[in-house]
Structures are given as structure tokens and as C-alpha cells.
Input
Amino acid sequence: MDIRWDILAEYAPFFLKGTLLTIGLSIASILIGTILGLFIGLGKLMRNKLLALPFSVYVTCFRGTPLLVQILLIHFAVVPLFLGETNAIAAAIVTLSLNAAAYIAEIFRAGIQSIDRGQMEAARSLGMNHVQAMRHVILPQAVKRMIPPLGNEFVVLIKESSLASIVAAPELMYWGKAMQGQYFRVWEPYVTAAIIYLVLTLSLSFLLTRLERRLATE
Amino acid sequence: MIKVEKLKKSFGSNEVLKDINVTVKPQEVVVVIGPSGSGKSTFLRCLNMLESITGGHVYIEGIDLTDKKTDINKVRIEVGMVFQQFNLFPHKTVIENIMLAPMKVRNVPAEKAKAKGLELLRKVGLEDKAEAYPDSLSGGQKQRVAIARALAMEPKIMLFDEPTSALDPEMVGEVLEVMKQLAKEGMTMVVVTHEMGFAKEVGDRVIFMDGGVVVEENVPKELFENPKEDRTKSFLSKVL
Output
């Protein structure tokens, strides 16, 4: 098997554009998903079961259905409902954010619940109210424990952004498929895409490991 | 200073405290002893509402904790608590542990809070550990930091929930020493403990609890040497 370097060179600018969009989709979804996830996680922790119910239903629905189905639904049905027409990039960001939020909500909930009850009691016994205790005592400790599972979730999100190619969002995988379609070659486009995804996820892991080390207290 | 009237506390159908009546006067050191499961820790935790109160009243300086209008956070400022498991904040250094509540709750400026914190650390003999993280301290050191942290809020009352029960035997002394010092300075204290020596030496009054009731209370000398109730006698014969 010989490698067609010429078509790789021809597609290099497209792969670059696609990679940038993949990074953009991922960063936007990580940010929106994390903020949304924090609120949904706190919502699920509410003592009032009735108030907590909608948040539980949200997590159940988004965790329990395939991302591919969600992308198609949001792209062809939900976004047109609100905007009149659809937009692949917006649909991809919305879907990835909503989906990631469900998983991140569970990471937040587990992180908060993993902190010893005595920490909240100590904070409250010093006169702090619930919000102060959460903000200064519980959350900083919980976030530290959440970094490894959050890192996992972010890596998954980068990879799953490739599903946006199904609705023709011109990200990395989209250009891989275009190249395959034009030249009927499979190795060059897909191995190239795989290597780029690997570089992206490895860079993210590296950053998170650094962050974890910085937050260590010994 | 503290007045407990007909206090009742249940966990579900399990009644842990049945009709407790106790008064603590200013500058008094009251030691609560009793077998495990007697409700003595729950009693202590009701005094700052870490446990919700099922029935009766707890008054701290005349303020009824069970009154819905009472701002419990304000009351807790005046009531410091030291826990069996220390409960230091592991993500903060020793000095940050001490400064946090004064800064956030009392709005003390950082510099003042730090100066006060260092002074308290000197008092408990740990000023060289100000920048250390709790994980690097021994149990006795952690508990002394926890005492300093509670004192930083300048409470009028200190509650101690078995402060030496989680410590290695050789570290019990250093913590009791700090507590004795506090008692000498006139702090009002309620101490749940198994340290009978401390009860005898420092306590103004000893309360013996069993089965969710106060069985007997008296000055230490009388209670330890002349217990009136059979349950007190049998408990003391096992621990003394």
C-alpha cells in the first residue's frame, strides 16, 4: 500500500479548518455544558424531591438516548422550530452541550456528595450560611475530586463532536469523509483524522494533569 | 447562659433524647459523661442546632433556638464547636482555616484576621505551623488548630464533642492542656468526653447521661465519690 501524499497535501487546509471548528465546538460545548451541568447537579441535590424531579428527568433523558439521535432531532426538528431554518454548527453545539451537561451534572453531584459531612458541619458551626459553606468549603474540595472524571468527559466530548459531521457541520470528520468520497481512499483521510483527534485529546489530558498537580495540597 | 428545657430529639421513631433539662451558667465548665449511645453527643449538637430539635426549648443567652424567627447563623457565631474528627478544611492552610470564618462571617479585614490567627496559634503552641496544610499535622496538632479556629470567632461558649477520642494516647495531654487553659481564662464550656481525669480536675459540674436522660448531675467530687444512682455507679465502676 502506498500513501497518496499529494491528496493529503491538497486536503491539508481543509483538515486545518475542520480541526479549528472541532476545537471551537468542543470548547463551546465544554463551557456551556459545565455551567449547565453545575446547575443541574445542584438541582438534583435539592432536598425537596418534587423540585429535584425535573433535573433527574433531564439527566435520565439525555443519558438514556443515543447522541446521534439527539443530534438529528435537534438539527432537523428543534433548531428549525426556534430559528425557522436549521444551522449545523449551532445544532452541534446545542446537542453536545445538553448531552455533556447530563453527565457533568452527575460528576458534580457525586463530587459534592463525596465530601465528608463534617466539613459542612464545621463550616456551619462557625456561623457560615449554607451558600458560604458551599462556596468556600465544599465546592473547592469537590472540584478537585471532579477533575479526573471531568477530564474523561471532556475527552469523550471532543471525540463525539465527530458526530456533527452527520449534519454536515464542516468539522474535522466532515472533511475526512469528503476526502474519502472524492478519491475513494480510506486510509489517508481516516488515519489523518484519527491522529488529529489523538493530538487534541492528549493535549487536553496533559493540561488537566498539570492542573491537578497545581491543586494538590501536601 | 445556656438553658435547656424539656429537650426532645428523635431520629425517625428512635427517641434519642427524652426530656433533658440543663442550665449552664457563665464561665461554668460542664462535663457530660455516659456510655456510647446515651445521647450525649446529640445533646451537644442540639445546643448549636447541628441537629434539628424535635421538642422543647434551647435558649442561648436568652435566644430561643427553636423559634422560627431566630437567625441560627448569628447564634452560632457565639457558640464555637470542636469535633471528634477535627473537621479542618484540608484545602486550606492552618492560618487560612482560622481566618476564613472571621473574614466571611464577621467581615474582619484579612490582615487583622491573620494577626488574630497567629496570636491564637501561639496560644495553642503551633505558630510555626501557620503555613502548613492540615494533612501534614498530627492528630493532636489538628485538634489544637481546630480549637484555635473556633476561638477566632470570639465565641462566648465552646462546645467540645469528644475532642480527644480520635487521638493517639500520647497526644491527648496536649489537647486537654489547651482546654484547661481555656477553662482557667473563664470560657463557658460544655464538654462531652471519656476523660474522667479531665472531668474531675476541670469540671465545675458533671452530668451523667444514659438512655437519653440526665441520670445524675453534681459537682465532680460528689458524683465520682458518692454516686447516688445505680446506673451511675455501674458506669463509673467500669471506667474508673
In short: Residues 5-44 of chain A form the longest helix (40 residues). Chain A touches chain B at residues 116, 118-119, 121-129, 132, 136-137, 140-141, 144, 217-218 (CB under 8 Å).
